[in-house]
TrEMBL record, chains A, B, C:
InterPro entries: Ammonium/urea_transptr (IPR029020), NH4_transpt_AmtB-like_dom (IPR024041), RhesusRHD (IPR002229). The keyword rRNA processing does not apply. The gene is rhbg. It is a multi-pass membrane protein. Belongs to the ammonium transporter (TC 2.A.49) family. Rh subfamily. This is Rh family B glycoprotein. Functions as an ammonia transporter. May play a role in the elimination of ammonia in the gill. It comes from the Eukaryota. GO terms for biological process: ammonium homeostasis.
Length: 469, 469, 469
């Protein structure tokens, strides 16, 4: 009886704690009001969005950065909200949360990222100047948070996720500042700053939030037929628009053009190796949707740093080809080990999609930078490696900086994830108990009319109505 | 027995009247043939789409308006066909009609809008000149019709919808002409011309088409799990591309750039207030998909007029924040009252997503216009407020015009909806009876193989086949 | 008993042959490695993607072709991967394969097409130069392969599809070379090169692969409610972005602008005639999802050749109007005849969507070319009909060339399909037997948890858990 009473108590505490009636409104309203105040104090239109400033100079309209970057921005935006959101709907009972929490934390993160990134590298006379490039950067930072979300998917409350986003965006901006501004690292598509950072941060958080009894929710931690189709919407959008992602903030002209094309071929090659590996590693040769949904994207991650460089098309294909192989092997053999031995419960397998391919991308970037020559880059060197072009450093040193940046990123991500993980353990944030993970019903009104009841009723009723006639 | 006989008679009449075998082909063919004839007589390529005219002058290719606006046009196009179409698939048994009728009436409306808008403000020497800007405007007008469609969703035949579109597009063009041409109102994103007009027109139509026995179809007027996921596709696309919507026809350069950015921040803020309010107004703190799907978009509607102005980023966020709050409150408390007291059966809650946020947007626009100064706008004033820049009116007068335009829009929408509502009551149009609303099976061939039967059979059969082996 | 034994033997052979454990990895890896080698030897960045070359000349950044074509490229990319992929998810048990095999063969084809098209019309000093235009062309060629995939959908293994793609891409490039380079044919949107070619190639392949006992899989060759909604995602994306498809590689300026607009109006008109015809040809006036999903797109196909010409808006609408009518009639009356009499089992009805509308488009193109005058085209003639502008041929001769090109295309497609069909019959490729066509479970791990079980369990469990409390 006392055991039951204890259980009751635990459950009741759980029931109370997962109730978001006050917690979620309070955090949403406080965060948004703080954002509005800080934007009011700190943020201004930049020269290209301000009516007065833009008209002071004698530009042609088509020189406005909007026309160079807005189409890429919208593609990135689709990746963030549709791509990440639907990719995670593969869970059978967690579709509302996957798309819905993705939506919430992305909407918060992009505002907070505008401030944090602006604070670290966008200040002009005490003000943060914003335009389409800062919007892309804010979406990029948001992407990193969503990668971490993938690691803890199904096991966190929306309040926890907002708190995680608050800290992760801040640390992202710090790491980005160290790499891009202090060290002069090149990482246009964010193999390091976005993917490696987001993955290892999230993996450390999920390690700290380790749930020993998670197997009680195991039956919900899988897909059903139609949930895998919804997830493919996310996959395909990520795949298609990754060329825009990697090229969105590179220099105008040949750089954007080349980056998009390198990524296009990297992804295509990655898809073939993913399909091959998926069939090869299955005992009956059947393709596994988990691999197709994730590993086929690794080529985009791995081309994130070197994509803007003169990687050559076949070089891009080699990178993508390897990324697909590594990623499938990770899903098949490494993830179970990480879970069992290291207690890392990585719901979406972000280590395989963003972690290892991110590291691969960083290494490829370092090597490609180290072998850069004036003969290959010509006057384009100043766009891709400004420090090399200006003579500040030589190419091999640039390569060394790239490699060091990977170490810095890993360090900040792991340490940050450690600290934030412990913060998220506070019971006040309303995490679900181990028995009700991967379940929309905790945080969402879910219709009690279910598919299997409504549909037959549906078609039985209609003849019924007619038969009355 | 005689009661049964009467019922039988009614039902039989219904059965006859909802049959679209002749009605739909007749109206489709007649409308399209009229469109083709009128296009043949009235419509010409404009200077930027005509092979001869474009090459007469010495332009650079990149000066063609196509490159300034086509990416935005395609985003708007996605909002019209995917956004509106899938947003309405939340109903459990009305997915075919939601996407399919949306598709039909949009395809008609954009052609008819080209003529009506061209007639009122696109004539050059007796001909309507068309290009990408007229295509965007036609899509905008179509959006207004689709908003009204949301109010009557599930209760109308496709023929009724085409007739409604025919009249609504015409009245839309009249209202737009009065505002933009006669009064000199600024409304680039259409808070008034598109959202307020479409919402109140549709609300009046659904009021006139009031169905006292609609509760007989109540069990179908709700969502199921996967239909809410389909609806989220619509929501997210509308949310992502709203910056393109509001900026699609603003002036080139800083104006498009600023409008897109203002809308981006308005929507982000709106999302946080929506989530907060949704949890706050639920007795158990659970999020309601209806709010997330709709209210999170109100920030785009509310930034429709002032988005192109120097609203400032934090001003945009305040507007979005308020719009989300108003919209959730509307869904929670106002809609039931409107239905019970005013007999307005608003299926999608367009009053909460387009009506009230549209009015908010109009008011914000009027205030922002009234406080415009040369100090803030500089030479950019001529793009945003040409009448103020030219000295024709002063800023506060422009603000007054903006406010008056809201009243004009409401008047024309309500009066128009009243008249069109009565026209739509004609039994010849084949509306469904009260018992079979929200039901695809009336107008679509629906497979009798249902999900719940096919899927288990599916997986049982496969082993079965193998076991034969 | 011996009959049973024979059956057993056949089935076992089937079971072995559909196992992809080695076949798929081998073909994927070999193809990709060959691609990488050939890219390494033959492919180079073109002047607009090469860092050194681009900076050699004194351009403005906005003159880079990337800004003219990349937004259109991304729209085409969406059509290829989401459009074609989801259009084919209408089958109840073949969603994974529809999206997944579409993904695989498209990722292969676009790489192979880069080489084949480059070899035939992109060589510069022994090297293939690539950039955004070659990427669009590669996607176009891929589209043709996916059309053929639609004809054989559900009846082929992924290995067969890759082999088909290998040959079809090659023949596509040959046909394209004959038309565009040797004959000087105009076909920017590919009514002939893409749609007619892909359709008749696929129809011949499916004819050769005729399965007399396919009716044993008949119960799976149909849609269920939600699979039709997934398919509508594909349809709507194809419809929306077809203006980008047809205009993606036309000349800069008025040409891209006009082509997009012509296609927009052609599609709108096509939608109305499709809805009308669908209701008219149903005995009960109910709309058929097959027509809406397919025939409404015929207007895009039919505007593929003449779209860039001075077709006029009303001319475009007439073309679209006719295309919709032809296409619905094809689905309703011709497809059953083709299957019964000619033994052409055309799963997606590509003859109705791509075959006949492609021929219509070719004819419209020939007529429009034949009547072209300097009075209408002015100096724009050199963009649309360079051979006419240069005086090499006159307009009526150009029209004759266009017509001849249709015949050439049909010849190469049918002959090519014949040969490739016989190659695909080799049992080593692992085609499914007649009893297990249209079935994901052959080639994919499909979760045994099914919708109808998981959902009720889901909602029953939750109260259960709470009631324990």
């Amino acid at each position: 009886v006392s055991a039951l009473r204890t259980l009751l108590g635990v459950c009741e505490r759980d029931r109370v704690s997962t109730n978001m009636r006050l917690k979620l409104p309070i955090i949403c309203f406080i965060l948004e009001i703080i954002l509005i105040i800080l934007f009011g104090v700190l943020v201004q239109y930049n020269e290209e969005t301000d009516a007065k400033e833009w008209h002071k100079k004698n530009h042609s309209d088509y020189e406005n950065d909007f026309y160079y970057r807005y189409p890429s921005f919208q593609d990135v935006h689709v990746m963030i909200f549709i791509g990440f959101g639907f990719l995670m709907t593969f869970l059978q009972r967690y579709g509302f949360s996957s798309v819905g929490f993705n939506f919430l934390i992305a909407a918060f993160s992009l505002q907070w990222a505008t401030l944090m990134q602006g604070f670290f590298h966008g200040m002009h006379g005490g003000k943060i100047h914003i335009g389409v490039e800062s919007m892309i950067n804010a979406d990029f930072c948001t992407g990193s948070v969503l990668i971490s979300f993938g690691a803890v998917l199904g096991k966190t409350s929306p309040v926890q996720l907002l708190v995680m986003a608050l800290f992760e965006v801040t640390l992202f901006a710090v790491n980005e500042f160290i790499l891009l501004t202090l060290l002069g690292t090149r990482d246009a598509g964010g193999s390091m700053t976005i993917h490696t950072f987001g993955a290892y941060f999230g993996l450390m958080v999920t390690r700290i939030l380790y749930r020993p009894n998670l197997d009680k929710s195991k039956h919900r931690n899988s897909s059903v037929y139609h949930s895998d189709l919804f997830a493919m919407i996310g996959t395909i959008y990520l795949w298609m628009f990754w060329p825009s992602f990697n090229s969105a903030i590179t220099a105008h002209g040949d750089d954007q053009h080349r980056t998009a094309m390198n990524t296009y071929y990297s992804l295509a090659a990655c898809t073939l190796s993913t399909y091959g590996m998926s069939a090869l590693t299955a005992h009956d040769g059947k393709l596994d949707m988990v691999h197709i949904q994730n590993a086929a994207l690794a080529g985009g991650v791995a081309a994130g740093t070197a994509g803007e460089m003169m990687l050559t098309p076949y070089g891009s294909m080699i990178v993508g080809f390897l990324a697909g192989i590594i990623s499938v092997l990770g899903f098949k053999y490494l993830s179970p080990i990480l879970e069992e031995k290291l207690k890392i419960q990585d719901t979406c397998g972000v280590h395989n999609l963003h972690g290892m391919p991110g590291i691969l991308g960083a290494i490829v970037g370092a090597v490609t930078a180290a072998v850069a020559t004036a003969d290959v880059y010509g006057d384009g060197m100043k766009d891709v490696f400004p420090d090399v072009a200006s003579g500040k450093v030589d190419a091999s040193y640039q390569g060394g900086i790239q490699a060091a940046s990977l170490a810095v990123t890993l360090g900040i991500a792991l340490l940050g994830g450690l600290i934030v993980g412990f913060i998220l353990k506070l019971p006040v944030f309303g995490a679900p108990s181990d028995t009700i993970c991967y379940e929309d019903n905790i945080y969402w009104e879910v219709s009690l009319t279910v598919v299997s009841e409504s549909f037959p009723t549906h078609f039985q009723e209609i003849p019924g109505e007619n038969s009355v006639i």
